[in-house]
Amino acid sequence: MSALRKKFGSDYQVVTTTSSSHQKEKKRKRQRFVDKNGRCNVQHGNLGGETSRYLSDLFTTLVDLKWRWNLFIFILTYTVAWLFMASMWWVIAYIRGDLYRVHDEKYTPCVANVYNFPSAFLFFIETEATIGYGHRYITDKCPEGIILFLFQSILGSIVDAFLIGCMFIKMSQPKKRAETLMFSENAVISMRDGKLTLMFRVGNLRNSHMVSAQIRCKLLKSRQTPEGEFLPLDQLELDVGFSTGADQLFLVSPLTICHVIDMKSPFYELSQRSMQTEQFEIVVILEGIVETTGMTCQARTSYTEDEVLWGHRFFPVISLEEGFFKVDYSQFHATFEVPTPPYSAKEQDEALLMSSPLMAPSLCNSREKNSSLDCLELLEDSESTTKLPSKVQKMTGRDGLPRKLLRMSSTTSEMTYSFGELPMKLQRISSVPGVSEEKQVTKATKIATEAISKSVADLPPKLQRMAGGGSRMDGHLPPKLRKMNSDRFT
């Protein structure tokens, strides 16, 4: 952080000032793919013949309808069924002549005390609801009435199971459980554990837990492929701990979900300034099993680019009381500013690499079968000027020392390695069959001496004089290089 602040200097404060002024502006309004409450703003049109698929799955279609339509269909279905069955009982009484022989005590009607349509309707309601007042009842002198009674019982059971089951599923849907799962109003980007991190907060308002809670994040952003195809809502996965298991939540108290912005992140090149021109949407999906009902629940929300605060951090909401932990939900959405570089993670990595001269050698040493000469070449390529890094200049004691002399000093470390780590020329010599180990070492030393003498011949005259006469520049080199040279020529 200090190296970044030293390198970028005053630009850091300037961008921070512009960021604070930008945050005070009114948030831009644009169309969202997912609302804050989790509703998806997608409408399907021009389905054509595909609408028949909804009728084939009528139960799910009724459950997905809004409550006002569910209640309307519920009342309408029962009303039509009751009127239809009541009219059937009235038709039987009319055909048999029961309506005109009500006061004949010697006559046995199909249904006692049914002499008009209202009485037939009351008989059906009493039978269907199993109320049984005892005043109206079916007799054994009416076989058509017995058949209609059986049909009424079967049809009534089917209608009750369908509509009551639909209403029960509608009322017990886990969508209402999602109302007690909270997401922070904004997401933040700041430094955590030395890395630029995107963070947001999630909490559970109920005491009942979410079993096997898991969280996922999707980045929705339009892009164009190299072939010219335009993707208006391209979905990219944001890693929130899938590789480490951090996406499996123990959601008892509010948790801060983190996405580390590294080389694998889609936000690797996102900076505070570029975020003002970018358009994206982060969709958060929280899934889990409701502990009380055992049903799977899903809660969703989204964050657009104007809801991501750069250089902010969430307020702590958990405090230790006497014998328990207290969660203060009044600070659940609150954030505060923290010092954060306004540059992207890619720019910060490049700045750290340039400000640390030992980064390139460490990368070289991590590779297998890599000589010190290759590391020096990597250092030469990383520097745009002809000067060497400051640490190498201190080791040599002369800022303008030619690179060939550094190559000479680098061969010492190569000779100390085993034959498996020697340069390719010496490896080929050591791999010749029938050659003893002493001869191999002698021949390798001879080749190294010839390379050193050739390198000294290519040096400027002044350095040749310093290298000649047996002194080998010992009086002008630091103790570490003098020891390396003495080991080489022994």
Notes on the structure:
The chain has 490 residues and is of the alpha+beta class. The chain is 41% helix and 17% strand. The protein contains 16 helices and 14 strands. The chain has helices at residues 2-8, 10-24, 52-56, 58-64, 67-96, 117-128, 143-171, 345-355, 359-365, 372-382, 390-396, 403-415, 424-430, 437-457, 461-467, 479-489, and strands at 181-183, 187-192, 195-204, 210-224, 230-238, 248-249, 255-260, 281-290, 296-304, 308-310, 312-314, 318-320, 325-327, 335-337. The strands form four sheets. Strands 1, 2, 3, 7 and 10 form a five-stranded mixed sheet that branches. A hairpin with a 2-residue loop joins strand 2 (187-192) and strand 3 (195-204). Helix 12 (403-415) crosses helix 16 (479-489). The two termini are 46 Å apart.
Number of helices: 16
Segments where pLDDT lies below 50 for 5+ residues? 1-27, 360-389, 391-423, 425-438, 466-476
Structural class, by secondary structure, is: alpha+beta
- Which shape, going by the Cα principal axes? elongated
Distance between the termini: 46 Å
Topology of helices and strands:
Elements: H1 2-8, H2 10-24, H3 52-56, H4 58-64, H5 67-96, H6 117-128, H7 143-171, E1 181-183, E2 187-192, E3 195-204, E4 210-224, E5 230-238, E6 248-249, E7 255-260, E8 281-290, E9 296-304, E10 308-310, E11 312-314, E12 318-320, E13 325-327, E14 335-337, H8 345-355, H9 359-365, H10 372-382, H11 390-396, H12 403-415, H13 424-430, H14 437-457, H15 461-467, H16 479-489
Parallel strand pairs: 2-10
Antiparallel strand pairs: 1-3, 2-3, 3-7, 4-5, 4-6, 4-8, 8-9, 11-14, 12-13
Helix pairs in contact: 4-7, 5-6, 5-7, 9-10, 12-14, 12-16
